[in-house]
């Protein structure tokens, strides 16, 4: 029989349970809690508590986003834009002029250091580590896209830093990916669903599927009713989804399999977003531009 726990141990366990329930969407709350006393700070810095904290809340908060832009000297560049009052991710400690963020997933960011994906770098924004990738052996064109993901088979992706990773790069040579006359959309990130990565082709006329398991490519059609600027994403159930703007509504679709085994696009939700925009915003200026993987946030 285990000996009874002391009063200080019971107090520490109770405090840990209280701190465990601090919402993760504002990191400043955890910082302030760590300043209360040495005991609270020790609990909050304990790796075992941090693992419990991530597992308890499961869905990570949106702390910010990476914005690609063109500088005054017409160079491409990126910067981190925090969405909370206390940012846990510092601005890059390196010169990122001419850099462009291509993909962000599983705690890593894939960057293009120059033009058209010739020089690729994987950056860990938490640790600051940079890893330059070898030159690609495929023909590079302006129409290209890429995706970075964790390659550890048993990882739950709640805190995977420093482990193995995988980069998938796709480029349309002479306007022909997988033998079809259509360019890869370089402004749309790839969507990771299970062992498959999906890329959008220009104007959303086709979708490209890359199977990580057997290293193969295939093509998919969009829904019958779609508009330019649709975005591939993961649904709440973990299946392939699609988001797009139609008029004043945000339209969400999912790829589902019917009882006969045939896959098709099914409309899921139509969300009115008219009131989110100023009255003088033209409808043609509204489009879906990004999706925060694992967080469930859509950028319009």
UniProtKB/TrEMBL annotation:
Q: Which InterPro entries match?
A: F-box-like_dom_sf, F-box_dom
Query: Mind telling me which residue stretches traverse the membrane in this protein?
Result: none
For this protein, the record's SUPFAM superfamilies field holds: F-box domain
Protein name as annotated: F-box domain-containing protein
Protein origin, superkingdom = Eukaryota
F-box domain boundaries: 12-51
Origin organism is Miscanthus lutarioriparius
């Amino acid at each position: 029989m285990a000996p009874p726990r002391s009063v200080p141990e019971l107090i520490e366990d109770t405090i840990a349970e209280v701190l465990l329930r601090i919402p993760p969407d504002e990191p400043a709350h955890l910082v302030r809690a760590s300043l209360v006393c040495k005991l609270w700070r020790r609990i909050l810095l304990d790796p075992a508590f941090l693992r419990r904290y991530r597992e308890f809340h499961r869905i990570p908060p949106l702390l910010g986003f990476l914005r690609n832009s063109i500088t005054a000297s017409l160079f491409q560049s990126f910067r981190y834009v925090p969405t909370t009052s206390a940012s846990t991710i510092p601005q890059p400690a390196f010169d990122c002029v001419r850099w462009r963020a291509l993909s962000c997933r599983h705690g890593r960011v894939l960057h293009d250091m120059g033009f058209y994906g010739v020089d690729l770098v994987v950056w860990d924004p938490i640790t600051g580590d940079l890893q330059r990738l070898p030159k690609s052996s495929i023909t590079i064109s302006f129409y290209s896209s890429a995706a970075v993901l964790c390659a550890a088979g048993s990882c739950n992706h709640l805190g995977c830093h420093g482990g193995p990773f995988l980069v998938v790069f796709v480029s349309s040579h002479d306007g022909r990916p997988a033998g079809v006359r259509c360019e890869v959309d370089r402004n749309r990130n790839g969507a990771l669903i299970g062992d498959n990565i999906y890329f959008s082709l220009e104007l959303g006329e086709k979708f490209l599927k890359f199977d990580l398991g057997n290293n193969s490519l295939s093509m998919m059609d969009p829904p019958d009713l779609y508009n330019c600027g649709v975005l591939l994403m993961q649904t709440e159930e973990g299946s392939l989804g699609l988001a797009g703007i139609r008029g004043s509504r945000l339209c969400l679709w999912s790829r589902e399999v019917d009882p006969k085994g045939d896959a098709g696009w099914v409309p899921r939700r139509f969300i009115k977003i008219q009131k989110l925009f100023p009255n003088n915003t033209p409808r043609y200026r509204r489009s879906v531009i990004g999706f925060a993987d694992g967080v469930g946030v859509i950028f319009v």
